[in-house]
């Protein structure tokens, strides 16, 4: 068995080399097989040592062990001989032996049991590959806990001195929790052995507070020696060490007052001996996690940001409440907009924005430290509870002779830290304070000195300062000055080019020459410069008084910029070749002087004086050069002024003067004047005194040879307005058909513009009945006359009616509008001739008509008699109507008609239908006869009718030809056009009509058929054949016996318009169309009087 | 003047009871106590608002932490003689200001942006001191011994408790504010019994 093992082991050892040694090992293999067979023979006698195993923990000593042969006694000794270059034997009383590490390669190991003769020796082939490297079990030197941070600190030694060479070591550390040893963490940690014993540290932060449960820690290692070819194995686990918190009698909740990152998970536990019934964070209940004993925990996921006082976590027991507070916030943001500057080059102010709020306050608030790397100095930010968005500031005292500063601002809070850096040359980052103590001092009337204080040590830099100069009613002026910085903070500059006697307001701001920021403006300082002599003499004009004896001298007060001080008085002098007059010390408010002069030419001189001195004299000549060619012109202003133009006159060598006054004032008047240079040809006269609607008189003077000549005289308005009064007018003369009106001029003051004309309105109307309507409203009955000739002062209104009241209105107008109106009522005189004519003419006409009528009646008296009063036959003369008296007398009811011969008025014999009956009496025509002729269905054709009909008056037929062509029909055509006007048609169309007729056609001639279908064709005919009845003919059933169609047609539906009596001009059935002429009205004719029923 | 429970016995010190200024003093102190009772209630509400949930919820009743040197008004307080009650009131009011100061300092860290709460706490300490002094003045006017044995300094114990943890500090602050309200209210009631015509 031993050999088997040995051979087996050997064969294993050999296997790896077999490939490369196959050819070389043929002979040793045979030898080995031989040895194996011999060993088998020996082993059958008794057992031998077997299962040789070698391990090492330090690569220097191999600890080999084997199993004793069966039957070997307790006191068996072994001799182990190892062939390792030399042959060394080691005695051993045990079944193991430690031998020095063998050199690489196979070594024969012979183990011989001593004193046991029954046993046989064993031989093994041993090499490093057969050796296992198993490090010693590591030992934890120390395990400690930092409970506030829930951190475990592990310390152990690697025993590096044991191993002869550098090797990599892998440490595996496991952490177990609670008494049931739940593995909560297993990590590996790599180190390198350096031949010395080295103590290693490892820390781990638990997600659960260490106070909540006992935590155990174990460690083992694995030596990864690259040179060792044997089998490497992990060491055994070290003995577990644990950390537990020994609670006192009080129940506590962990962690206490912990600051955690928003969004993280946290475990909170309650270490207690009571039963915890519930737990909650804020308002939210949490499920309990049971730990050892009665300890419980809750796990909070993704915690949200806390309020200022933190997030309360509360555990409730039967009789108490325990809790802790968590502060969920953020680490400090990177300080933003870090900027360092100085106000005074003594102290550096660094400011920054803290960025995102951390939600942590009080002891947990972010602390800031400003560190300057060149000097190594730092300052800490004093905690304030200011608003989170407010900029923070830190002050750093400047160091002598250091201009470059490298600042690092570090922000720190319990959750982390951040920093921001800035490198500044502080001399380029000067933001000066606002200048203070600004003072002004006189130099002269046009210059002052400004002084101010600017605290700081600016000796090494230059300032660029701005001086803002404000003057009343003037544009603001900015002057830049460069001044050298000083140590004593006092600065002084001169400001010149000022105006005398002017109030100035100064203020100053400064920056360094290498501009960074302007300081804030200083306070304003107001100052009045001193006076100087007036720079110019006053603007002067002169006027002769109305009597021509006195010369009135006018001058204008000097403007402030020319007076250069307060004007105290004026001196006026007039000098000629002969004399000089002067007026001195005329006090300032007076700007006029009057001198009694003769008509000599004088030169007037005016001088203004202030406290400093007198102005240059202002001179003007008194002489006026006459101008005979002068016309008064008109001008109207534009906007606020009146433009005036004139032609260039080279003779005018001095200047032009335009003076003006209110034209309503008496001469001489003077409101103001204006001087313009002699080379000007136009100016605009502007004055605040100008008012719209006021007429001003402008005089343009030209100056030559020291005398003024009036060149133009202009009246004008700055703006024209409508007159405010109406012209006062009267009626000068009145006749039957005309009125003469006269009016007066409107005064200039009330005209308010240049008169452009008058508007005269008139209409018929009584004073009392007139509604005083506006006459200018465009009514047709109002007549208007526009009088544009303003010189016209009268107007005659002709073509009026006599004895009629007229309403007259007159109003004036300018370009500014219409003035008010003035009205008057006038009654024209009566026209007697016309009245007489009006009476005589109707009387004469009436007489003539009466005479003519009488004559006509007389001449036609027979006709009238027969027409209106015919002889009525006496029925008693008619035999046919005579009854026998006896019979009649016997029984009147049985009286029968007896046809007695009667004397007819006329007799008419009708031969046939086609023959026109011969009328004996041409004056009496019986239309009934024609009817009877048509009524053939009732009477035989050859029936001869002799009848009497009362006489009928007929109108003469306008178209006798039609009667002639009418054949058998006796139709009386009436002038129906008087009732229905046919549509007008061109003559050509009428000739082409299907019917062939023009104008009205009687209905009987219409091609009326009995079929309804033909009605459509009739419609067409209606369109083309002149008059057609407007009603729907289909609906007419003609039952009138007078209707010629009613007896002439067999059709059931007979319709052809309104039936019309042949003897009447009226329709028997009046048309329904209301638009049609009514039968009673439009169809009236003289013949109606001869009808029994005119309306039928 | 009918004798009421706890009212002054005119026989015991007629010279005092006859003094009109005593009644005025009692009346004045009672008015002050009544005003401070209202303020104390407002302080309690303000305090609770700034501690976060579940403080202020109806079902939340944290443990009534013992405060060294200051106990809640005992149930038998009303049965004690008036001077004794006032002595207890004065002692409690004297112990309250340092406690309120401790609470204010802690709240200044927790709620630095709650100026009204901090001002109320500061005012409460000053008002408790003033009311205690006024009660002692009444006691002195009554001829009673103004000061009993000084209670243990409560502030140190309170500060130690407050330093234990924020939650405990909050609970302690709530307790102190509650005690302040209770004692001011108790003082108002005790003084009310001394005010003629005022219902007990």
Protein architecture, described:
The complex is a heterodimer of chains A (1096) and B (200). Chain A is mostly beta strands. Chain A has 11 helices and 61 strands. In chain A, strands 47, 48, 50, 51, 53 and 54 form a 6-stranded mixed beta sheet that branches. Chain A has a 5-stranded mixed beta sheet with strand order 5-2-1-8-15. A 5-stranded mixed beta sheet of chain A has the order 18-25-24-20-21, with no helix packed on it. In chain A, a hairpin with a 2-residue loop joins strand 53 and strand 54 (707-717). In chain A, helix 1 runs antiparallel to helix 2 (26-43). The longest helix of chain A has 28 residues, at 832-859. The radius of gyration of chain A is 74 Å and the shape is elongated. Helices cover 64% and strands 0% of the residues of chain B. Chain B contains 6 helices and no strands. The interface between A and B is medium-sized, with 24 and 23 residues.
Chart the SSEs and their pairings.
The complex is a heterodimer of chains A (1096) and B (200).
Chain A: H1 2-21, H2 26-43, E1 50-56, E2 61-67, E3 77-84, E4 86-92, E5 96-100, E6 107-114, E7 122-126, E8 131-133, E9 140-146, E10 151-157, E11 168-177, E12 182-192, E13 199-205, E14 215-224, E15 231-232, E16 241-243, E17 252-254, E18 258-261, E19 266-271, E20 276-281, E21 284-286, E22 289-290, E23 296-300, E24 311-317, E25 321-329, E26 336-342, E27 347-353, E28 367-372, E29 377-380, E30 392-397, E31 404-413, E32 416-425, E33 436-444, E34 447-453, E35 462-471, E36 477-484, E37 490-495, E38 503-512, E39 525-528, E40 540-544, E41 550-555, H3 560-563, E42 567-575, E43 580-587, E44 592-596, E45 603-610, E46 618-621, E47 624-625, E48 632-636, E49 641-645, E50 655-662, E51 672-677, E52 682-686, E53 695-704, E54 707-717, E55 729-734, E56 739-743, H4 748-751, E57 755-764, E58 783-787, E59 794-797, E60 805-814, E61 817-827, H5 832-859, H6 861-868, H7 885-890, H8 927-934, H9 960-965, H10 987-992, H11 1014-1024
Parallel strand pairs in A: 1-8, 8-15, 18-25, 47-54, 48-54
Antiparallel strand pairs in A: 1-2, 2-5, 3-4, 3-6, 6-7, 9-10, 10-13, 11-12, 11-14, 14-16, 17-19, 19-23, 20-21, 20-24, 22-23, 24-25, 26-27, 27-30, 28-29, 28-31, 31-32, 33-34, 34-37, 35-36, 35-38, 38-39, 40-41, 41-44, 42-43, 42-45, 45-46, 49-52, 50-51, 50-53, 53-54, 55-56, 56-59, 57-58, 57-60, 60-61
Chain B: H1 14-17, H2 20-49, H3 82-110, H4 115-142, H5 154-164, H6 166-192
Helix pairs in contact in B: 2-4, 2-6, 3-4, 3-5, 3-6, 5-6
